[in-house]
């Protein structure tokens, strides 16, 4: 999942884009949006919105320095509670899971 990516860099959206076989397969088997807008121009608020389904003003996460509230319900926590195993490659910067 990418929180901020310009569609014109991908071949599936543009003749001059790069080939991304894994993303193309994922799009063919799932949902592919033709028009989407990020709820916030900064990384952490945008990621928090993707994870919670809520706007930055409702989570209180409006800056990159603000973590998601510890008790916030988000997709990865819900999946874990229901027996799914998830992984993260890249940046989290949204929350610190209690150990």
On the 0 to 100 scale, the average pLDDT is 85
Number of domains: 2
User: What is the share of helical residues?
Assistant: 25-40%
Count all strands and give the number: 0
Q: In percent terms, what proportion of residues is strand?
A: under 5%
State the end-to-end distance. Answer: 25 Å
Given the helix and strand composition, which structural class is it?
A: mainly alpha
Largest sheet data: none
Q: What best-fitting shape do the alpha-carbon axes yield?
A: globular
Unreliable runs: none
Number of helices: 4
Order of helices and strands: HHHH
Mind telling me the C-alpha Rg?
A: 15 Å
Family: Belongs to the sulfatase family.
InterPro entries: Alkaline_phosphatase_core_sf, Sulfatase, Sulfatase_N
Keywords: Hydrolase
Pfam families: Sulfatase (PF00884)
Per-chain topology:
Blueprint (H helix, E strand, L loop, with lengths): L20 H9 L13 H10 L3 H4 L15 H7 L18
Descriptive terms for the model:
single chain; 2 domains; Sulfatase N-terminal domain-containing protein; Sulfatase_N; mainly alpha; arylsulfatase activity; 99 residues
Plain-language structure description:
With 99 residues, this protein is an all-alpha fold. The chain folds into two domains: 36 residues, no CATH class; 61 residues, no CATH class. It contains four helices and no strands. The protein is globular and about 45 Å long. The model has no long low-confidence stretch (mean pLDDT 85).
């Amino acid at each position: 999942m990418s929180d901020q990516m310009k569609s014109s860099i991908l071949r599936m959206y543009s003749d001059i884009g790069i080939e991304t076989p894994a993303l193309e397969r994922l799009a063919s088997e799932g949902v592919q949006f033709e028009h989407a807008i990020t709820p916030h121009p900064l990384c952490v608020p945008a990621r928090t919105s993707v994870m919670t389904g809520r706007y930055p003003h409702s989570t209180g996460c409006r800056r990159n320095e603000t973590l998601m509230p510890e008790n916030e319900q988000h997709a990865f926590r819900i999946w874990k509670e229901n027996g799914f195993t998830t992984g993260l490659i890249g940046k989290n910067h949204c929350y610190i899971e209690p150990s």
